[in-house]
Amino acid sequence: MKVGIIGSGIGALASAIELTRLGLDVTVFESNDQIGGKIVEQRIGDFRFDMGPSVFTEPLLVQNLLKSLDPEQEFAFHLLTESCRYFFNDGQKVLIPTGKERVAQVLHAELGEDELAAQRFLTKMEANYKTIYPVFIQISLHRFKHLFAKPLFKALSRLFQYGLHQTMHSQNQQSFVNPKTVQIFDRLATYNGSSPYLAPAMLNIISQLEFNDGPALPVGGMVQITRRAHQLALAHGVKFKTNERVLEILLQKQSIQGLKTSKGTYAFDLVVSNMDIHYTYERLLPTIKPPRFLLKQEKSSSAVVFYWGMARSFDQLGVHNIFFAADYQAEFKALFETKTLYSDPTIYVHISSKIETADAPAGKENWFVMVNAPINVGQDWDNEIQLLRKRIIAKLSKSLALDIEPFIEVEQINEPRLIDERYSGKQGSIYGNASNNVFSAFLRHPNFSKKLKGLYFAGVTVHPGGGIPLAINSAQIVARCIQEDFPSLQK
Fold it and tell me: Mean of the pLDDT values across residues 181-202?
């Protein structure tokens, strides 16, 4: 059977690997000149930057993906001993390590939390994560045969532990005494572009990855995730077509017939779309009625990113750094209600050269400086970004007690309009729908079409959600669904 895959993000590459493993003939189409979707790199002057995701959790998922096609594969990564360094407007700085015992100790020593209570919270999130994972992440929520299995009943046995009646913020506020601790845990909502004041408390399981396990960093940078997957797929016969935009998914009655691209027409038995689910329907399936209820949900946030090559090093900073807004709730209201950039933004600074020293010249650093942004609804972005740049420089300069602007040696900017244009994220949304309501887990598009035979969906805008681990899981769900739909492929 021949499969066409639209896009080349990690969801697409994982799908290519999974389907090649099943013996299918796979072709991947990418509209840009680089394979990797958002996980690509760029050299600006003497500095190397990962242009997209910068937080890497569950590294064994990538290694296991590669090994599934070639058991000899290894994936090298650094396990970080720090989760993140937090800088507050009043001058306090808190370095959060990894491992729940060490995290609880720091929360007690630096923020006055009860150490045992903090450890109990993190232990609870670990148990919730391990119980929910096989039910909400590894399987389709849209096929009964996936749901009704032993893991479901185990998950239901912990139903009252998930805080289903609470938001992330309300659960964190109830669990910790210091508003700064609450803010640290609230930040995890941004991992899928949501607001902690609206997202369900169940999303606090992200703390298992961020604090208990802790982040990693691939040797060679984040780009190695997609680069290694691409190389492996290519070596096993997957065909890649770059600079070739898919224009339409071709149908005959209610079945897949192939793809029309900017360069030709191809016959396929199956199609997997890794494109934003909104644009998949709007641009590629013009004759098909879209699932409007799912697609009208509130979209995730976007981002403005400054890639700065800094002509000096900063000992105060680590790999991951957060400079918090004083009024976090006001910042999220600006993001999701007024659709504006907040005047006192939370700033994330990622510096891979702290570990990967080849990413910047000696004595210099590569700064990935990101602010969460609203989706594009016609704002005056040129003016807003100039103003934001000034605010970021002022805030970082104050916190670091040094005017940083003279040290910006090279600069490049990414923003909502470019995210839409380059990566087909509708209105610059990074993760498709946000998780800003209690039913959000059930309001993501399935990994298969209920109307069109042979059409499947992977990536961060469909089930199970945003982030590299969930995108890989989406591909594995696609492979399982295809095996179920075509029994001859089952091994």
Answer: 96
